[in-house]
Design goal:
Blueprint (H helix, E strand, L loop, with lengths): L22 H14 L5 H5 L3 H8 L5 E3 L3 H9 L8 E6 L3 E6 L4 E6 L5 H21 L12 E5 L4 H6 L13 E5 L6 H11 L2 H5 L1 H6 L1 H4 L3 E4 L20 E4 H7 L3 H18 L8 E10 L5 H4 L4 H7 L2 E13 L11 H13 L12 H18 L7 H11 L3 H5 L11
Parallel strand pairs: 7-8
Antiparallel strand pairs: 1-10, 2-3, 3-4, 4-6, 5-6, 7-9, 9-10
Helix pairs in contact: 3-7, 5-12, 12-16, 15-17
InterPro entries: Znf_prot_DUF3669
Protein name: DUF3669 domain-containing protein
Length: about 425
C-alpha cells in the first residue's frame, strides 16, 4: 500500500484569543493561525515528496491518518471488549516506561529501589510545571505540551491489585511509579518520510524491514535547535534507528520547517519552568510526538444540548488519526531553584548540560544568531509574566558571556547521533 493511501489530514480549528498577549506571544498565535489555515489537501498528499510530508506534518498544525499495524493495534485495543496489556516503550537511567495498549496512559516504574526518591521528584516536578502552565497557557498554544501526571503509585497502591497481571512476568511490579499521559510516536507516514528524506541509501533499499523493527516504531523526534548536523552518515548503518531520532537545525531548515516557531515554544516553556514552577529544567527533553485525534471536549452548556451518542462521539479518540505536537518531558533530574545568584548559576549549568535542544548564543552562523535572538526575547517576555526581578536577564547575559559546550560542537559535523 502506498504512502498516499495510508494518510489524510483534517483542517484544525483554533479559537485562540491573542488580545491580551505581548507582541512576541501575539506573533506565535498568528503563526499558529496561519499554519492551521493552510490545510494539506488529499490531492497535495498524493503528489507530496517525503520532504513535503515532513514539512507539513512536523509543523505541528495538521492531522494525519495512518493504517500502520501499530495504529491498528491501539485502535482495536480501544474497543470496549478488548483485553489491554502494558508494553515496554523505553528505558532510561531512572525508570522504564510502559504503555497501556489501547489507551493514552503510560506508567513509569523505577528501575531499582535507589531510584524511588528520584521518581517521586519527577512526579513533583510534573505537578509544579503543570500548575505554572495552567496559569498562563492552559491550552498549550504558546508552549510545549506537558504530559499530564495522574497518580504516584506505591507498593500498596490499589493500582497493583488491578493491573499487576497485565505486565510481562519479568517486570518487577508492586514498586513505586507514576502514571502519565502517553506521548505517542510519529505515525507511519512520517517515519517513512524520515527514512526517504534523511537516511542513507542502504536503509532506503531495505525500508520495509527497517520500519518493521520495534525500535523504529517507537519514534519520537528530538528537536536539536542548538546543533548543526547530518544524519546522512556512512559506516555503522546497522545501528541506525528512529527511536529518539535527532533532527538538527540545518535539517529543519532544509525541510522548510519554521525553526523560529519551535524556538518560541521552547523559550516560553523554559521560562515557565524556571520562573513559574521554580525548577531548573535539568536534562529535560523536547520532542515531536503524536497524540490520537480527539474532538474538542464540549463545554457544560454544549453538553446540555447533546444526546448520549453525541457525547460519546465528542470524546472519542481515533488512534488511526494523529496530530504531531511538541512535547516536554523527562523531569527526574530537575531540582528546585532559588531566585538569587546561586539560582542563576544553577540555571546556567542546567542549560549547558542539556542536550542541544535550545538555540545557542555566540554562533558564527547567521541563522543561528537570529534564532538565538528569537529565543532570547521570547524567554524574557514570558519570564517577566512571573517575576519582576532582573534575574531572567542575568541568566541570559551569563549564557551569552560564557561559551557553552555546544559552541565547539557546532563547528563540526558529528556523525555519532544515532549512537548516543
Amino acid at each position: 500500500m502506498s504512502r498516499q493511501e495510508q494518510r489524510r489530514t483534517d483542517e484544525r480549528e483554533s479559537e485562540y484569543s491573542i488580545n491580551s498577549l505581548s507582541d512576541s506571544i501575539k506573533g506565535m498565535a498568528i503563526d499558529t493561525l496561519r499554519l492551521i489555515s493552510q490545510p494539506f489537501t488529499e490531492e497535495e498528499l498524493n503528489d507530496a515528496t517525503p520532504e513535503q510530508v515532513l514539512q507539513r506534518m512536523l509543523s505541528t498544525a495538521s492531522y494525519i491518518s495512518t493504517t500502520s499495524s501499530l495504529a491498528k493495534k491501539y485502535q482495536r485495543a480501544n474497543e470496549p471488549s478488548a483485553i489491554r496489556l502494558f508494553e515496554e516503550l523505553g528505558k532510561g537511567q531512572c525508570g522504564t516506561v510502559y504503555g497501556f495498549v489501547g489507551s493514552s496512559t503510560a506508567v513509569k516504574l523505577a528501575n531499582y529501589e535507589e531510584k524511588y526518591k528520584e521518581l517521586g521528584e519527577d512526579y513533583s516536578a510534573y505537578i509544579k510545571i503543570h500548575e505554572a502552565i495552567q496559569e498562563c497557557d492552559p491550552d498549550h498554544e504558546i508552549s510545549a505540551r506537558l504530559p499530564k501526571a495522574y497518580d504516584f503509585i506505591g507498593p500498596k497502591s490499589e493500582f497493583w491489585n488491578e493491573y499487576n497481571l497485565l505486565f510481562d512476568p519479568q517486570v518487577k511490579v508492586r514498586g513505586y511509579g507514576l502514571t502519565l499521559e502517553r506521548i505517542f510516536p510519529a505515525p507511519f507516514p512520517v517515519r517513512e518520510a524520515l527514512v526517504d528524506a534523511l537516511l542513507p541509501p542502504i536503509i532506503k533499499r531495505n525500508k520495509a524491514k527497517f520500519l518493521a523493527k520495534p525500535e523504529n516504531k517507537n519514534c519520537l523526534i528530538r528537536l536539536y535547535l542548538g546543533r548543526r548536523h547530518t544524519t546522512k552518515v556512512q559506516g555503522k548503518v546497522q545501528n541506525l534507528k528512529l527511536q529518539n531520532f535527532p533532527l538538527h537545525v540545518n535539517e529543519m531548515e532544509d525541510l522548510g520547517l519554521d525553526t523560529e516557531r519551535f524556538a518560541r515554544l521552547m523559550a516560553n516553556t523554559l521560562a515557565i519552568i524556571h520562573w513559574g514552577a521554580g525548577i531548573d529544567g535539568d536534562d529535560i527533553e523536547f520532542v515531536l510526538g503524536s497524540s490520537p485525534v480527539q474532538n474538542k471536549t464540549p463545554t457544560s452548556k454544549e453538553l446540555e444540548t447533546l444526546k448520549l451518542w453525541e457525547m460519546a462521539e465528542a470524546c472519542d479518540r481515533k488512534f488511526t488519526q494523529r496530530t504531531m505536537e511538541m512535547w516536554v518531558f523527562d523531569l527526574n533530574e530537575c531540582s528546585p531553584v532559588t531566585n538569587d545568584e546561586a539560582g542563576i548559576e544553577q540555571l546556567v549549568r542546567a542549560f549547558n548540560n542539556n542536550d542541544p535542544y535550545y538555540p545557542q548564543p555566540g554562533q558564527s552562523n547567521e541563522n543561528d544568531r537570529k534564532l538565538w535572538s528569537v529565543f532570547r526575547k521570547t524567554y524574557l517576555d514570558m519570564s517577566h509574566r512571573f517575576t519582576e526581578s532582573m534575574n531572567p536577564g542575568r541568566f541570559i547575559k551569563t549564557l551569552e558571556e560564557e561559551p557553552s559546550k555546544e559552541n565547539s560542537k557546532n563547528k563540526r559535523i558529528d556523525s555519532l547521533a544515532f549512537f548516543e
